[in-house]
């Protein structure tokens, strides 16, 4: 005689093994027989929430609306080294733009793409609209709510007749008094239905029922306020939660609020306060390193990433960032060791082989260079990655003196990504070597318009304009180059010559 397992225990077993759909199906059958089974209802709610759950701490992308219509700006002109919006103000001993390329927001390129790194904080609306925010689309992210809206539509998939829980008919006051059900219901409303207003109501009533002593509900209130853009209210809730119970996640949420309010020093102090309470906590150390990196304080960031590796020697972000820092400080052999470590850990993608190829080339291990780029070509996921690989192969070709191959590689880079400003700049230099002045000038102007934050196209255009006698055009381009990279000696010398020439006239 076959003994059948109790359906609820089977569903719970599926939930523990992350087989969420099977867990949900069994709970549905239990609820068809007994619609008032609270255990099955709660388990199904948790399973459905887990299917679409996203960690709120990591995912934080600012859209144009959040950046340009920001009402929480406190100081328009911040002191040097105290703002994330003026990344060039901090002198952290990192490499200059002549060695390490910058992103459009004016920060050095990091070794690891994370949410909100590429978005930056553009200075003007025109610049914000021109900047593609993601690798997969050329359209800027209009709002952070776009992702949440798409998640919200997932609620329709659970039940063909409509949503699993009809929120408009729920008596939130009744559920807020049932601690076992209210937490799962809150997470369902917040993550699955994306109904922040109802989630906020439930959290407020549950906090009141717990006599304002439950830290978990205060954190949830803070999350709701943060999602609604009420950062000061969120800060109060997170602070209050920390007074009741110190939890690592609460420190991370509160630091996120301070970063959104553009108070990196306060965020750093908070992380250090958290480290006093939780020594060696990897997420707190990573948070400190990220803020230092965003403020151009590369040497401090690297030190903290090394501390991260002492605690967790398989931390991909720390290994990648230290590797890229060694590469840009003229230590390709050491960078190669870090990237090989990533390869041993099972990271297997186009970007890693691209970086390995460049490290091998600059470390003079020529036998490995082209094979790494061939692997990178095989693992390409989109046109932008393809363009980057061809661009780097073009650099290798320039290094070995094969300018014909370099010319073809840069052309191929532009075929795959027509907005690749660096390829336009390098093509312009090659065209000038062939004596095609007009073509070279057109390429440089295109590069300068595509990437106004880069100094190279402006400087090259300035030199070219001066050679063909267009002194006014040369002076304008040199000024733009100086704005992008004030310490560039050649630009300063060129401007000095042009000013002397104009004074003689």
Q: Can you give a write-up of this model?
A:
With 505 residues, this protein is mostly helical. The protein has 26 helices and no strands. It has helices at 7-16, 20-33, 38-52, 64-68, 125-130, 145-152, 172-176, 179-193, 196-209, 215-227, 231-244, 248-260, 264-277, 282-294, 298-311, 316-328, 332-344, 350-362, 366-378, 383-399, 403-416, 421-433, 437-450, 456-467, 471-484, 489-504. Helix 10 runs antiparallel to helix 11 (231-244), helix 17 packs antiparallel against helix 18 and helix 24 (456-467) packs antiparallel against helix 25. It is elongated, with a radius of gyration of 27 Å. The termini are far apart. The model is unreliable at 118-123 and 132-158 (pLDDT under 50).
The tally of strands reads 0
Unreliable residue stretches? 118-123, 132-158
Mean pLDDT: 83
N to C succession of SSEs:
HHHHHHHHHHHHHHHHHHHHHHHHHH
From the N-terminal CA to the C-terminal CA, the straight-line distance is 107 Å
SS strand fraction: under 5%
Principal-axis shape: elongated
Number of helices: 26
For the CA atoms, what is the radius of gyration? 27 Å
Instruction: Give a quick account of the main beta sheet: strands, pairing sense, barrel closure.
Output: none
In short:
The protein is 64% helix and 0% strand.
Outline the secondary-structure elements:
Blueprint (H helix, E strand, L loop, with lengths): L6 H10 L3 H14 L4 H15 L11 H5 L56 H6 L14 H8 L19 H5 L2 H15 L2 H14 L5 H13 L3 H14 L3 H13 L3 H14 L4 H13 L3 H14 L4 H13 L3 H13 L5 H13 L3 H13 L4 H17 L3 H14 L4 H13 L3 H14 L5 H12 L3 H14 L4 H16 L1
Helix pairs in contact: 1-2, 1-3, 2-3, 3-8, 8-9, 9-10, 10-11, 11-12, 12-13, 13-14, 14-15, 15-16, 16-17, 17-18, 18-19, 18-20, 20-21, 21-22, 22-23, 23-24, 24-25, 25-26
């Amino acid at each position: 005689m076959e003994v059948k397992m109790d359906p609820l225990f089977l569903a719970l077993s599926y939930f523990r093994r992350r087989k969420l759909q099977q867990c949900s199906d069994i709970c549905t059958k239990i609820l068809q027989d007994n619609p008032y089974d609270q255990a099955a209802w709660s388990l199904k709610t948790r399973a459905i929430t887990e299917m679409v759950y996203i960690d709120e701490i990591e995912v934080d992308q600012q859209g144009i609306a959040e950046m340009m219509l920001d009402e929480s700006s406190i100081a328009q002109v911040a002191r040097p080294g105290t703002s994330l919006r003026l990344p060039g103000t901090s002198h952290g001993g990192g490499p200059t733009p002549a060695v390490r390329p910058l992103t459009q927001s004016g920060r050095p390129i990091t070794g690891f793409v994370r949410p909100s790194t590429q978005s930056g904080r553009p200075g003007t609306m025109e610049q914000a609209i021109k900047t593609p925010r993601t690798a997969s689309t050329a359209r800027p992210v209009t709002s952070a709510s776009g992702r949440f809206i798409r998640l919200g539509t997932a609620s329709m998939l659970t039940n063909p007749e409509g949503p699993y829980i009809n929120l408009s008919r729920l008596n939130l006051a009744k559920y807020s008094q049932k601690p076992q059900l209210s937490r799962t219901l809150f997470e369902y409303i917040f993550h699955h239905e994306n109904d922040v207003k109802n989630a906020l109501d439930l959290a407020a009533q549950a906090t009141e029922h717990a006599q304002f002593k439950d830290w978990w509900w205060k954190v949830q209130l803070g999350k709701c306020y943060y999602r609604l853009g009420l950062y000061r209210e969120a800060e109060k809730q997170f602070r209050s939660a920390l007074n009741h119970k110190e939890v690592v996640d609460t420190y991370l949420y509160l630091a996120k609020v301070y970063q959104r309010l553009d108070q990196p020093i306060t965020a750093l102090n908070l992380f250090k306060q958290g480290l006093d309470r939780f020594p060696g906590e990897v997420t707190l150390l990573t948070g400190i390193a990220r803020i230092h990196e965003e403020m151009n304080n590369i040497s401090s960031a690297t030190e903290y990433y090394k501390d991260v590796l002492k605690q967790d020697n398989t931390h991909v972000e720390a290994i990648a960032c230290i590797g890229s820092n060694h590469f840009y400080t003229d230590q390709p052999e050491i960078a190669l060791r870090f990237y090989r470590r990533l390869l041993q850990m099972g990271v297997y993608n186009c970007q890693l082989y691209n970086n390995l190829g460049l490290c091998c080339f600059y470390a003079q291990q020529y036998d490995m260079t082209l094979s790494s780029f061939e692997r990178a070509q095989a693992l390409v996921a989109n046109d932008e990655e393809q363009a980057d690989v061809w661009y780097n192969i073009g650099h290798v070709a320039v290094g070995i003196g094969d300018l014909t191959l370099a010319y073809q590689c840069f052309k191929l880079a532009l075929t795959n990504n027509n907005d690749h400003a660096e390829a336009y700049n390098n093509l312009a230099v090659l065209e000038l070597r062939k004596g095609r002045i007009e073509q070279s000038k057109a390429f440089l102007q295109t590069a300068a318009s595509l990437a106004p934050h880069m100094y190279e196209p402006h400087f090259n255009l300035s030199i070219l304009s001066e050679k063909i006698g267009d002194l006014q055009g040369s002076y304008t381009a040199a000024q733009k180059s100086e704005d992008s990279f004030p310490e560039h000696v050649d630009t300063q010398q060129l401007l000095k010559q042009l000013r002397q020439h104009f004074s003689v006239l």
